[in-house]
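Researcher: Structure prediction, please.
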Amino acid sequence: MAFLFFFLMGYVEDPVLEIMVENRGRYLDRIVYGKVRLQPDGSFLANNFHMIYHWDEKGRLIRQMGGRGEGPGEFQAISEVLFNGEYYWVVDGARMESSVFDKNGSFLYRSGARSRQFVQAGDQLFMVDNSQFNPHGSDYPQVLQEILLKLDDQSLSVDFKPLRFKKVSQRQKDFRMNFKLVWMVREGDRYLLVDQLEPKIRIYDKSAIERESQTDLAQPFEPDFLPLNLKHWVEPPESMVSGFANNNKMLQWWQSWSRINFFDHAGDGFVIAYETPDPADPNNNLQVIQRLEKTGANAGKPLVVDGLCMGVRNNLAYIFTPDEKGDEFKYYIRAYNL
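Model: Predicted structure follows.
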């Protein structure tokens, strides 16, 4: 185990940029993978289950919104936050409701929601709609739906467009859709998809989408894919495990295997990020960021850091890193060369 630790940590490089974000001395509870995002304008967005934090490129707090509860602008379990420069669209996965705030953080209104994740592919916006999924049923429904989003001060409307594809995978079904996040990039008329549980890039072109649409709902569908050889990947178990003796045992199981948490274009290839167990701490995971060639082959050595990947921009990987061991709670965003 010690050898593995030094082998992993041998890849770690010093950050080229370190930003301490403004948190007013507060503990930012339960900010985890999938809840930290680098924004197109260079700002940073993060949320836990009840609060949203938005920092500028220097780490200054632009605004803080939310709260725990059921009142206006309060949440039980935030699963998605989108910001388009004018409005914040926040999905409460527990209540299956959308809340909309204006760009100044003022709560506007709340409405129903069907999704817990939204996926951008170029100028297209998709939602992962698991409303047709029954964890105890035999079907493999299609879950990726293209939408057109309309927001203003008075209402939110979602137009559902004809393009719908990507059946629930067997692994996702085995995990009862507990790990349902997907990432997608578009190349011409085809879509390249990665989900949390499998190190592969699925290829959906027009032919694959058509073939999938003709497959019975009781049958899974697997398009062509590019296999990924991720050096520090620890294969997930075959299905969900429950009945742990205590929360610590559950956390250790949760952190003992890998999940993908980012995928995007990077130059002429791609970049992928995934978590891997930390040999020095069974309650923690390390973040591995790997450049990929167009073929899916690894390009260069992986970057291994302690933190959460927020995204990649200008060949820099941005990592959200808590420091909660001292008398003060400090949080950093560190950028590393890829």
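Model: The CA atoms of residues 16 and 336 lie 6 Å apart.
Researcher: Thanks, that helps.
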